[in-house]
C-alpha cells in the first residue's frame, strides 16, 4: 500500500488530456470518471448557457447541484462551435489532446469538420470516443438517442416491472450512465493498446446507449435461441432463482433476502419458523424451490410482516443469511459502512459545504479524488486558450466581442 496522502497520491491518468464536447449525461459522465482519475478534462461548452445539465433538477444559486458532481475536476471553456473561429480553436485543442469525447447526433462533428477522418490527419494518436443512441452505423444511427427509448429497445425495460403491467423505469438516467461507463472503459482500453505497442495510432470508440444496456442482459439471448424462452418481468424476484425477493416488514420498511443457496435456504426457513420447509426434500435444490416459489414467498412475507425490519435483519445476520435494507439517500449518508468506505466527498460552493458521491472503482495505490466541484461556465477559458494555444489578450478580447467565447 502507498503511504501517500490522498491529495498527493499519483493517479493513473495524469498527463492524459481529454477534450469533452458532449453534454448532459453520457459523455460528461465518461469525462467525469477520467477527470477523477487524473486526466486533464477540458470541457467545451456553448457561450451563454453552457451544458444544459447546469440547469437540471435541483438548482441552488443558479446552478444544478448535479453539475457540481458531474462537472468535478473539469476545466470549463466556452466556444461557439457554430462559428468558424470557434471550430478552429476547438480543432487546435483536439490536436493537443489524447482523447476526445463527443455525444452529438452522428454526423454533427463531421459537419463541423471535426470528425475522426479529419482530425486523424493532424492527430493520428487521438482516441476518439463517440456516444450516441444507436451507434455510428446501421439503419437507426440518425435517430434521436434518448436513454429512455434506448433502454426500452435494449430489452432492459421489458424485464423490469411486474407481470401484466407496464414496464417500469428506475428513477435514474441509467442508460446514459451505463453508456458513460462503457465509454470510459473503451477509452482506457484504446489508450492501453496505443501505449502497449509504442505507437501513436488512436482509434474510434463507438458506444451506443441501447448496446450498453443490451450488454447487461445476461442470458436472455442464449435462453431464447437455445430453448425458446423469453425472459419475462418478475416484479421483485429474479426468474429461476428462489428465494430472492423483497419483503415488507411490520414497521413499513422493506428488506431484501437472498436465500437461494441450498444450505442458506435451510437456515433461512429455520430462523423464520418453518422447519418443515427447511427439511422438505422437494425444496432441497433450486429447481424444486422454483416449483414451490409461491409457498416459500408467502411464508417469508408472513414472517417479515410480523416483525420490524431491524429485528428481521438481526435474526438473518445471526443465521448467516444474505439480507439487507432498502436504502434511500438519507439512509446512505447515515450508514457507518458507507462513510468508512469513503463514498462521500465534501466540496465547498461559495463557502458552503456540499457532499457529492465518490467515483469508483477504488484503486489501492493510485486512487482517484475530487480536486474541485463543477466550475462556473467558462471559468477556464482564458487559461486554456492562452496557456495551451498561445492566444494573446488582444485576440481573446476580439473573440469575446464576436461571441465565440464568453
Topology readout:
Blueprint: E1 17-20, H1 26-36, E2 40-45, E3 59-60, E4 63-64, H2 65-70, E5 74-78, H3 84-95, E6 99-102, H4 108-111, H5 116-119, E7 127-132, H6 147-153, H7 174-196, E8 204-208, H8 209-214, H9 220-227, E9 244-248, E10 254-258, H10 262-271, H11 275-278, H12 286-291, H13 293-305, H14 309-318, E11 323-325, H15 329-334, H16 336-340, E12 344-349, E13 352-357, H17 381-387, H18 393-401
Parallel strand pairs: 1-2, 1-6, 2-5, 6-7, 7-8
Antiparallel strand pairs: 3-4, 9-10, 10-11, 12-13
Could you walk me through the main structural features you see in this protein, from its secondary elements to its overall organization?
By secondary structure, this protein is of the alpha/beta class. The protein folds into 2 domains: 17-216 and 342-401, 3-Layer(aba) Sandwich (Rossmann fold), CATH 3.40.50.10540; 244-248 and 254-325, formyl-coa transferase, domain 3. The chain contains 18 helices and 13 strands. Strands 5-2-1-6-7-8 form a 6-stranded parallel beta sheet, with helices on both faces. The longest helix is centred in the middle third of the chain and has 23 residues, at 174-196.
Amino acid at each position: 500500500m502507498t503511504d501517500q496522502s490522498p491529495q498527493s497520491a499519483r493517479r493513473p491518468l495524469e498527463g492524459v488530456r481529454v477534450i469533452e464536447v458532449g453534454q448532459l449525461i453520457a459523455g460528461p459522465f465518461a469525462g467525469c470518471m477520467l477527470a477523477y482519475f487524473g486526466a486533464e478534462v477540458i470541457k467545451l461548452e456553448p457561450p451563454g448557457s453552457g451544458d444544459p445539465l447546469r440547469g437540471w433538477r435541483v438548482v441552488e444559486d443558479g446552478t444544478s447541484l448535479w453539475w457540481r458532481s458531474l462537472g468535478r475536476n473539469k476545466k470549463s471553456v466556452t466556444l461557439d462551435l457554430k462559428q468558424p473561429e470557434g471550430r478552429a480553436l476547438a480543432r487546435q485543442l483536439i490536436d493537443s489532446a489524447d482523447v476526445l469525447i463527443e455525444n452529438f447526433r452522428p454526423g454533427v462533428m463531421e459537419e463541423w469538420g471535426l470528425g475522426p477522418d479529419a482530425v486523424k490527419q493532424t492527430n493520428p494518436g487521438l482516441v476518439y470516443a463517440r456516444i450516441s443512441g444507436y451507434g455510428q452505423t446501421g439503419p437507426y444511427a440518425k435517430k434521436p438517442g434518448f436513454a429512455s427509448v434506448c433502454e426500452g429497445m435494449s430489452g432492459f425495460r421489458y424485464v423490469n416491472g411486474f407481470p401484466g403491467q407496464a414496464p417500469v423505469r428506475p428513477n435514474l438516467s441509467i442508460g446514459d450512465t451505463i453508456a458513460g461507463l462503457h465509454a470510459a472503459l473503451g477509452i482506457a482500453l484504446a489508450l492501453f493498446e496505443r501505449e502497449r505497442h509504442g505507437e501513436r495510432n488512436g482509434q474510434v470508440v463507438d458506444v451506443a446507449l441501447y448496446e450498453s444496456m443490451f450488454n447487461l442482459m445476461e442470458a436472455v439471448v442464449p435462453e431464447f435461441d437455445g430453448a425458446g424462452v423469453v425472459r419475462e418481468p418478475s416484479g421483485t424476484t429474479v426468474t429461476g432463482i428462489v428465494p430472492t425477493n423483497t419483503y415488507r416488514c411490520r414497521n413499513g420498511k422493506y428488506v431484501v433476502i437472498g436465500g437461494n443457496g441450498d444450505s442458506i435456504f435451510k437456515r433461512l426457513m429455520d430462523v423464520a419458523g418453518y422447519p418443515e420447509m427447511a427439511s422438505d426434500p422437494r425444496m432441497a435444490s433450486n429447481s424444486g424451490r422454483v416449483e414451490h416459489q409461491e409457498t416459500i414467498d408467502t411464508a417469508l412475507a408472513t414472517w417479515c410482516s410480523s416483525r420490524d425490519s431491524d429485528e428481521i435483519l438481526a435474526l438473518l445476520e445471526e443465521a448467516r443469511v444474505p439480507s439487507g435494507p432498502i436504502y434511500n439517500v438519507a439512509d446512505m449518508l447515515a450508514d457507518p459502512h458507507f462513510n468508512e468506505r469513503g463514498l462521500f466527498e465534501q466540496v465547498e460552493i461559495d463557502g458552503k459545504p456540499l457532499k457529492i458521491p465518490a467515483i469508483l472503482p477504488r484503486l489501492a495505490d493510485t486512487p482517484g479524488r475530487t480536486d474541485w466541484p463543477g466550475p462556473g461556465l467558462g471559468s477556464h477559458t482564458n487559461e486554456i486558450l492562452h496557456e495551451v494555444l498561445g492566444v494573446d489578450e488582444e485576440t481573446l478580447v476580439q473573440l469575446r466581442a464576436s461571441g465565440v467565447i464568453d
